[in-house]
Design a protein that fits this description.
Blueprint (H helix, E strand, L loop, with lengths): L13 E3 L3 H14 L3 H9 L7 H5 L3 H4 L9 H13 L4 E5 L3 H15 L6 E3 L12 H8 L4 E5 L6 H5 L5 E5 L13 E3 L15 H18 L11 H10 L6 H14 L5 H9 L8 H18 L4 H7 L3 H36 L6 E6 L6 H12 L3 E7 L2 E7 L6 H10 L5 E4 L3 E7 L3 H14 L9 E3 L2 E2 L7 H8 L13 E14 L3 E7 L5 E6 L7 H7 L4 E13 L2 E13 L4
Parallel strand pairs: 1-12, 2-3, 2-4, 4-5, 5-6, 7-8, 13-14, 16-18
Antiparallel strand pairs: 8-9, 9-11, 10-11, 14-15, 14-17, 15-16, 17-18
Helix pairs in contact: 1-2, 5-9, 6-9, 6-10, 6-14, 9-10, 10-11, 10-13, 12-15, 13-14, 13-15, 14-15, 15-16, 17-18
Length: about 575
């Protein structure tokens, strides 16, 4: 049954509320803890039992951090890095061009710098070199360095690592491994095929952090003192959220602690980035994924590939400011390129049908730096795995994004093994591929078949999930602060969404460029303000504007609005439906 009877909202979505069992669990939590019903509804949805509430609301990293030695090759990798530091060897870091790669490289650079050591950072050009180590680059690095550490890449790079003759290679990665590993000194990867999979949800920066924990342990055993690793968790948090790693277990603790570190504004690169993005409050997980992350990524997408890594590793505030401004400019350019590709991709996907197990689109000349973002937008709009491919010279290079419960990386890797792709790989939620244009349709049909076997396409594309109903008077600053303790929210742990039932729309005006400012009340004196960004470009804005004063069910997320020192709650409106009979 549709929640509040909303079968088709103003944006055409069906509202879905908690099931009977979840409602029972929420009530049991209220009785056992005395916490607000709204918070208990969220905890029940996240599967938190009564005995786990305290530990969940206050996650401790010391309780959740796994033993680094539980990962294969970890002791070897850490020992080799420590030896390189002690012997003053020449070290190179080969990193992927995204946020996870840049954060991983910055972690190593920062750790080495605090011990008086330096490292060469090499980030391949997305267009000219593609993802991961290549033989030419590795051969050149090996000629000038004693140790090469590949971060967020390298697990499938057999030829490239073999080309690094004369240097030791250590791989710290999280992408899905193949049947065989490259001939590196150590390959630390929770997604190796011979791993248990217990830590498969870690991003590469978290793997690097665990290696530094193990390195610190080995240094202490030798009577040496290493850098403060807790102060580096801001980079781990940024990478975890930006790489859409599920926010559960240790990932949640890493992000929670990392946000606290970030709030201290001690890292020049992140301070400069927050300032150019005009963040007026300490960053939240939302800001990492949608404000800071895209700017760090912009260099790798359409600019200089190593710019994001250099910014995150930068110790000079003046230099950091200049790089942040350049990344902000590149991000604006990226949005313009993305908008044109997104419109064309959506039209193409709609023509194929948005209810298939896989939503995909391909076009000549589509910039390879934005196809991943466009795939993410298609996935969000359809609740289906999505792949977007740029075609050029008889070949297509694409990126895909998946939904919870569907392992896209494994399916794409299987396609590559079957010969339908030139190459492909990734992890559960994101993957990349290269395909001959002549085999594109065949490859996408096979990928759709593999994803359908995992259950892709079964969820309603238009479903809007709601945690609970909330009256305007119950939406307080205190409640939002309590809800934030159940976070951070993101991949695998969606933020709370509430319905405001049968509320009178007392104020409704367009503000800025197509946004809608609203206020609603319950007829008993309680008032709640709200904002809906981009509303006038959707059916929501015109429909609400035409019914100012009418009664609606409203759905959205609660947030604290800090304005000139005054803190108040506002609803970030996502959807609405006319209240029955009004």
């Amino acid at each position: 049954m549709a929640y509040l009877g909303v079968e088709s909202s103003l944006t055409g979505r069906r509202w879905v509320g908690p099931g009977v069992e979840q409602e029972r669990q929420a009530e049991a939590l209220v009785q056992a803890t005395g916490l607000p019903r709204a918070l208990c509804s969220v905890l029940a949805r996240l599967g938190v039992g009564s005995a786990e509430v305290d530990g969940f609301l206050e996650p401790k990293l010391r309780d959740l951090l796994p033993d680094p030695r539980s990962l294969k090759d970890m002791e070897t990798a850490a020992a080799r890095v420590v030896r390189a530091v002690e012997a003053r060897e020449r070290i190179a870091v080969f990193a992927d061009y995204d946020v996870d790669g840049g954060s991983s490289a910055a972690l190593l650079v920062d750790w080495l710098r605090q011990q008086g050591r330096a490292a060469t950072v090499y980030v391949p050009d997305r267009i000219d070199e593609g993802y991961g180590p290549n033989p030419a680059a590795m051969r050149a690095l090996a000629g000038r360095h004693d140790l090469i550490v590949c971060v967020d890449c390298g697990t499938l790079s057999h030829d490239a690592i073999a080309a690094a003759d004369g240097a030791d290679v250590v791989v710290l990665d999280h992408h899905l491994g193949g049947e065989t590993l490259p001939d590196a000194l150590a390959v630390v990867n929770p997604n190796r095929q011979d791993e248990s999979g217990d830590l498969a949800h870690l991003c590469a920066a978290a793997v690097v952090f665990l290696m530094l924990v193990e390195a610190g342990r080995q240094m202490r055993e030798a009577g040496l003192r290493g850098p403060d690793l807790m102060a580096m968790l801001d980079l781990v948090a940024l990478a975890t959220v930006a790489d859409v790693a599920p926010l559960k277990g240790v990932n949640r603790a890493l992000v929670r602690q990392g946000l606290a570190v970030m709030a201290r504004r001690a890292r020049p690169g992140l301070v400069a980035l927050a300032d150019v993005a005009r963040l007026e409050t300490a960053p939240s997980a939302y800001h990492l994924g949608y404000v800071l992350g895209p700017r760090v990524n912009a260099g790798g997408r359409i600019g200089k590939a190593d710019l994001g890594a250099r910014l995150l590793a930068c110790a000079d505030p003046v230099e950091a400011q200049a790089m942040a401004e350049r990344l902000d400019q590149l991000n604006t350019e990226r949005r313009e390129i993305e908008a044109s590709v997104r419109a064309a991709a959506l039209a193409q996907a709609e023509a194929r049908g948005l209810d298939a197990p896989l939503v995909w689109a391909a076009g000549e000349g589509w910039h390879p730096g934005v196809v991943g973002i466009v795939a993410a937008r298609l996935k969000e709009a359809t609740n289906r795995p999505a792949v977007v491919i740029g075609l050029e010279g008889g070949e297509g290079k694409g990126s895909g994004r998946s939904v919870a419960g569907v392992d896209l990386g494994a399916s794409i890797q299987r396609l590559a093994a079957e010969g339908l792709l030139i190459k492909g790989g990734g992890h559960r939620m994101a993957a990349g591929l290269t395909v001959e244009t002549s085999r594109l349709e065949e490859a996408m049909a096979r990928l759709s078949e593999l994803l359908e076997r995992q259950g892709a396409g079964q969820g309603g594309a238009a479903d809007l999930r709601v945690d609970a109903a909330l009256m305007p008077g119950a939406a307080t600053v205190e409640l939002v602060e309590q809800l934030e303790r159940a976070g951070p929210f993101g991949q695998g742990a969606p933020g709370p969404r509430f319905a405001i039932p049968d509320a009178r729309l007392s104020y409704c005006r367009e503000v800025g460029s197509g946004h809608l400012k609203i206020a609603c009340d319950d007829g008993m004196g309680a008032r709640l303000e709200g904002i809906c960004f981009g509303a006038m470009d959707t059916p929501l804005g015109p429909a609400l504007s035409a019914r100012d004063g009418g009664r609606f069910h409203l759905a959205g997320r609660l947030e604290i609005n800090d304005f000139r020192g005054r803190r108040s709650v506002q609803l970030r409106l996502e959807d609405a439906a006319p209240a029955s009979g009004k």
